[in-house]
Structures are given as structure tokens and as C-alpha cells.
Amino acid sequence: MTGSEGIEKIAWDASGERLAVSYKGGDDNYKGLVAIYDVRRTPLISASLVGFIRGPGENPKPIAFSFHDKLKQGPLLSVCWSSGFCCTYPLIFHS
After folding, report:
1. Which of 35, 66, 81, 85 has fewest C-beta within 10 Å?
2. Any one Gene Ontology biological process term (predicted)?
3. How far apart are CA 77 and CA 10, in angstroms?
4. Which residues lie below 8 Å from residue 26, measured CB to CB, with a gap of 6+?
């Protein structure tokens, strides 16, 4: 991540195919975002950036996040933001 000081928080979904990462610092464009990765484990472990999630409110930062794997179509990512909002994002990808 551009200008980051390293990983701050990380969460894997139960299947090991989705990864959510927040970074310390970063430049103004990337500060406070949660990066979402698609992870493949065969034949080698590789992670591909899918996109970013920006929280609601002014200058939100992710306080905590985790995956919930009860949705049949794919994992749900819940994020609690410093702006006081808690949001749930369905991560449904088609191969």
C-alpha cells in the first residue's frame, strides 16, 4: 500500500479464499481503507487485490472487522468504523 507503515489488522474467511487487510498510515488516497484480496492456494499461494472498502463518515478508520460465513453465496465482512458505523459487506465473487 502506498506510503503505509505495514499491516495493522487482518482477517481471513473460513474457506481461506478471502482476506481483508488494513494498513497503518498510508497516503491520503489509501488511509483508512480495508483492502480485499482473493487468495488461491494451489499450485502456489497467491493473493490478488480485488478492491478496497472505504467506510462512511469523515476520515473513517477500521476499528475492527471479521468475516461471517453463514451466507451460502459467500462470506460477509463486517467492519466497525471510527465514525461510529458498523457495516456488513457481502463478498460474492463469481469465478
Report:
1. 85
2. nucleocytoplasmic transport
3. 12
4. 1, 2, 3, 4, 5, 32, 33
Quote the DSSP letter at residue 75: -
- Residue the block writes with cell 483508512: 32
Q: Compute the distance between CA of residue 2 and CA of residue 42 in angstroms, rounded to an integer.
A: 28
At residue 49, what are phi and psi to the nearest 5 degrees? -65, 125
Rounded average pLDDT per 10-residue block, the chain, 95 residues: 75 90 80 91 88 92 92 89 94 70
- Non-local (6+) Cβ contacts of 72 within 8 A are none
Q: How far apart are CA 85 and CA 3, in angstroms?
A: 26
Grid cell of 79 as nine digits: 467492519
